[in-house]
Amino acid sequence: MSHESFIQKVAERAGLSRVEAEAIAHATMRTLSERLTGGEARDLAAQLPRSFYEDLLPTDEKADGFGVDEFRRRVADRAGVDREKASAGIVAVLAAIRDTVTSTEWHDVMSQLGKEFAQLVETTG
């Protein structure tokens, strides 16, 4: 999937402008790089548009085990949006990731994120 297609999916799913979708997508990827192990972040980056590669470069090989609320706060702060937009954007980004990567990679990502994160995207089509 191209970068533009990915951002368009995020914007449509979350009801965001293209600019907001772009900011939230990059902020979500950056936050994922902190929440996933270094190896998993690199595996994910290999299957997404190249434009997200730098966002997903891990700063540490160990995953930081924060939950959904902290994830939302970090994305909102990085993207410069309120938490409501961040929440909708995170769900849309995760759904776009699910639609882009292999089922094995999606399973690997979700196994590290856990049930709390999986529940966010269960109902998205």
TrEMBL record:
<protein>
    <submittedName>
        <fullName>DUF2267 domain-containing protein</fullName>
    </submittedName>
</protein>
<dbReference type="InterPro" id="IPR018727">
    <property type="entry name" value="DUF2267"/>
</dbReference>
<dbReference type="Pfam" id="PF10025">
    <property type="entry name" value="DUF2267"/>
</dbReference>
<dbReference type="InterPro" id="IPR038282">
    <property type="entry name" value="DUF2267_sf"/>
</dbReference>
